[in-house]
Amino acid sequence: MTTMTIAKAITAGLRRVLEQNPKSLLIGEDIGKLGGVYRVTEGLQAGFGEDRVVDSPLAESGIIGTSIGLALRGYTPIAEIQFDGFVFPAFNQITTQLAKMRSRSEGRFGAPVVIRIPYGGGIGSIEHHSESPEALFAHTAGLRIMVPSNAHDAYWMIQEAAASQDPVIFFEPKRRYWLKGEVDTENPAPPAAAAQVVRPGRDATIVTYGPLVPVALAAAEAAQEDGRSVEVVDLRSVSPIDFDTVVESVEKTGRLVVTHEAPTFGGIGGEIAARVSERAFLSMEAPAIRVGGFHMPYPVSKVEDQYLPDIDKLLDALDRSFAY
Amino acid sequence: MTSTRQDSAAPDSAAPQGALFPNADAPGPANRDAANPDTADGEMVQLLDQDGALRADPDFSGYISDVDAQMLRGFYRDMALTRRFDQEATALQRQGQLALWVPLRGQEAAQIGSGRATRSHDYIFPTYREHGVALTRDVDFPQMLRIFRGISNGGWDPRENNFHMYTMVLAAQVPHATGYAMGIQRDQAGWDRARLEREGTAVVAYFGDGASSEGDVHESMVFASSYKSPVVFFCQNNQWAISVPTRVQSRIPLAERARGYGFPGIRVDGNDVLAVLAVTRWALERARRGEGPVLIEAFTYRMSAHTTADDPTKYRLSAEEESWAPKDPLVRLEKHLRSAGHADDAFFEQVARAGDQMAARVREEALAFPDPTLEDSFNNVYAEAHPLIAEELRWHKEYEAGFAQSPAEAGQEGAR
């Protein structure tokens, strides 16, 4: 067991990938000497050289497009997009090429590229640095989307992503980069596609992932003071989604709150609410309640606290659920 | 010819000296418009003129010194078979057997010349019009029609011939080519020059004058130049991006753009199979040696429509089409073969017969392709197990099974 921040757990995971898979390489803007703007790749170029930790030109479509080519040649590229809002120049490469390579080749081969994206808000930053675009990618078949919420998962899931034969978008909850946790480097975390009940409860279920897992846990703790036993499910993967674990939880508790930073409309929460209503309707004591961002571009940082789901919003959602 | 080559990436290059940059002396604020992207004005490598006469070029003739009569006849045969395939596929589309076809008539020399310059281990990233290049890579013509018959989005196995699948999003394959070349560099790390020349692999990225405007071409050239990757950017300037002429894509000859990236660009007569062969060989050898990318602009003409859904009478004059007819790459090579005594009527008749036989086989096999199943589509989304795919496939099969006749129903129908 070692205590690490999420950022350093990813660094350690990447280091292990580079050590174990000679065909793996990192590519992105400022990831070499600088170690990335969040220092997630710090020290890796010094250890593995410029051909394996590649400072790229400032061109996101080029980063993903060349990563696809490297994958076609048998390499395992792990690309970094510097910020969530900068992934869109590469959106075409990701959705029309990366996601479809296996379909297009009739299953003969794919392009197993990992795309790391620091994502989410709450860091007081400027435009394009606080977004949560995961639903845009979850809607695209052919991609896997992982979102770790703690250091242990971060360490193991980045390795799982690099080992996957499918392309993976790895959303890193940037405001939790410095969140410390125990990492067991001997015993792997469960596969990303398996959601985890991170706090058991009897009366309601909060489903979330990434940066809001600590918020959901805090809300559950606060609800406990009101005598409500709240279960928290960390999805860990938003494509695919482990609906079995979610449904099992709601069948037990009868109440569902889903929360993410991304806008509520058209988001992951709506998909979960719909699936749960299809599979667990008769177990539900109340409609599923979604707590997410508003239907607006991510707001300026002075008001982002009012935009982001927080403990109070989750407690309010629980109140509304229990009011039924 | 004086050297105007500006190759900062490889100043000690052993590449031939020559006018590798068309109009390289012209640009400058005062006379920037002097270079005309619409015409073949200025330097353009040509080894076989419109009348079929060989023209010596101090830089490039040496690259075809091995080309003998048999090879020339082979090039003609390649181009004729490609044109016959194109004709047959067009007919199949007109008969409702293909959803769409993308004709290449007029671009045979650009494709056969460049394709025949590659080695079998080189890897090709085509657009969706490189049927002639496909022939040089021994891709089976009927297989190519699977894309246009709605059976497959890939058509063939690229790993068999190192000829990638067609890409329909313009220019999206160009960064793939560059990344593939970056992989090759890593595979060949530490090889000496002799081994690179002997065994080195290079990549060819095809795109057109229209796609040259796409950001992916720009980004690819930046990456390839920065890393000196072994990729040849082969731009077929066929003058038209559907209905929009090349001058809307570029105010200077496309080949000149290479200078801005720091590698050589060269314009070649795209209807001259020998010039294209020579220039592409030069570019590939250079790339293999580790001297970085080259942009080749093959100046040619799309004699047919953009696709079978297109109508060129809406946007170009027949006089323009007629002006290109004498430059037809097949006519030109036929003139040369006949005047040089390399081929006679019997040869051309034999090629025509072989074309008809090929076309008949293409038609027969294309019409006999079994239909795919939606189940195949489910199975090809992910490599690894995926619960949503499994769930939806299960639902789909149960739903479809609901329409199946029970044995009793089938029996009753038979009795009627």
TrEMBL record, chain A:
GO terms for biological process: branched-chain amino acid catabolic process; response to nutrient. Its EC number is 1.2.4.4. InterPro entries: THDP-binding, Transketo_C/PFOR_II, Transketolase-like_Pyr-bd, Transketolase_C. SMART domains: Transket_pyr. It is an enzyme of class 1 (oxidoreductase). GO terms for molecular function: branched-chain 2-oxo acid dehydrogenase activity; magnesium ion binding. Its cofactor is thiamine diphosphate. Gene3D superfamilies: 3.40.50.920, 3.40.50.970. Keywords: Oxidoreductase. Residues 4-179 form the Transketolase-like pyrimidine-binding domain. This is 3-methyl-2-oxobutanoate dehydrogenase (2-methylpropanoyl-transferring). It comes from Zafaria cholistanensis.
UniProtKB/TrEMBL annotation, chain B:
Its cofactor is thiamine diphosphate. SUPFAM superfamilies: Thiamin diphosphate-binding fold (THDP-binding). Residues 1-39 are annotated as: Disordered. Keywords: Oxidoreductase, Pyruvate, Thiamine pyrophosphate. GO terms for biological process: branched-chain amino acid catabolic process. It holds the Pfam family E1_dh. InterPro entries: Alpha-ketoacid_DH_E1_comp (IPR050771), DH_E1 (IPR001017), PdhA/BkdA (IPR017596), THDP-binding (IPR029061). This is Pyruvate dehydrogenase E1 component subunit alpha.
